[in-house]
């Protein structure tokens, strides 16, 4: 079924159309604030860019993903008030926004078109996704109609996010006469997501001989980061406009619509390196999590190791040095190198830096435990006590000064449980939670190309938790170059143990790593959230039962 909005007939003569892509950051749940953001952006698009149409991201009125806020009884009232506010504003350009719309007993993920103070069209998303981090089918019904509208005399088709990844919506809109497709998105970032988007849009535009405007959300929402990267492909499949990733703004595009709607090409941004792209994602995730949740500052333990060094750099780049506090908490096993390097990092980045020894606290605890521990030998209990004392100090600073504690564990460590519950896992946000250790090294080198803030020996020295004399990570783990490959196959690609061994890895390494991953699910369930940068992060992506009898061999 095809549904049309305005009944006006497209002009047979060439029609100019200026579309502004509103690549903006919205706050989940703040419907009044998001509505004002839409109004302000539409006004600027009109006065600064003479926009005919302004296209906003998916579910921009509620922010994305709103999750169980969609189940609140007052949702419909708040959305209706917002839509009425937008109509009353009598905005000069047509606007295309995302909002949840209820029709009868069903809720839809919708695109709404407002022109000259009236709703002239609605489109209901046809393929709500239900995989990876998405669970839209928990809330939304499937739409069924094809919607084409004449906007400023141009036949335009509307789709929402996942619809463009499926066969049907774009094809049917083009068959119904649309010469331009507007696609509203809230597409989260991962390492090669932009390349996959480009390949898809190239094919869809070329096969259907229709130009596509792809508008994406930008900003951080809990573990998700949205990278923007809004784009326009012409009817031949050529990329002619691309907004920079991780940049909030309004991006105008001119179209000359005759037989086709041909966008006027613009210089494309340089392709960022993987390291630069990931680093931008981490900065965006930290900045939005801290600011949107109202934290005044952050505090983290600075150990002299590479993970805390990269975390500190990200925090400063996200928030500025005045909002970051670094704390070194040495013990008898802390090397002079670690003390020197931690201080050098703090000075290079200009943050408040404190040194609090945990030695007297450790001695007090061990004195109290002397009775029950009598006759036992030191083991990981004493090591974990060191980490837990550091966690107590950081959480106390958090409580006293309203600072968010940033933890520093990377994905490799989180996978195999190389972390201490209520110790180095104590905190509110883990910047590197989805970053494998081998990528942490690359990020450190990348950040030093911007300005040298991480001492070279922090990058080159063997990683160590320094919880015991001469301790090295590789004493209890395979080398990180091997470990990360095994983890990628098992965690992100669901290979069995036998399949990983068939890839050329030693059986002993594979069995040990898989066992560590499986038995440490209970730890990960209690870990703070962190920025997701891969297709399979620990969080919404990967949901395994803690108690289970699954055998991972085959």
UniProtKB/TrEMBL annotation:
CDD domains: GAT_Gln-NAD-synth, NAD_synthase
Domain of life, source organism: Bacteria
Domain CN hydrolase: 17-257
EC code(s) of this entry: 6.3.5.1
Catalytic activity: deamido-NAD(+) + L-glutamine + ATP + H2O = L-glutamate + AMP + diphosphate + NAD(+) + H(+)
Residue sites binding ATP per the record: 301-308, 408
Residues at which L-glutamine binds: 131, 187, 193
Pathways involved: Cofactor biosynthesis; NAD(+) biosynthesis; NAD(+) from deamido-NAD(+) (L-Gln route): step 1/1
Binding residues annotated for deamido-NAD(+), in chain numbering: 384, 413, 523
Pfam family, one: CN_hydrolase
Keywords in alphabetical order: ATP-binding, Ligase, NAD, Nucleotide-binding
Residues forming the catalytic site: 58 (proton acceptor), 125 (for glutaminase activity), 161 (nucleophile)
A GO term, aspect molecular function: NAD+ synthase (glutamine-hydrolyzing) activity
Alphabetical list of NCBIfam families matching this protein: nadE (TIGR00552), PRK13981.1 (NF010588)
Stated family: Belongs to the NAD synthetase family. In the C-terminal section; belongs to the NAD synthetase family.
Role this protein plays: Catalyzes the ATP-dependent amidation of deamido-NAD to form NAD. Uses L-glutamine as a nitrogen source.
Cited HAMAP family: NadE_glutamine_dep (MF_02090)
Stated name of the protein: Glutamine-dependent NAD(+) synthetase
Record organism: Marinobacter qingdaonensis
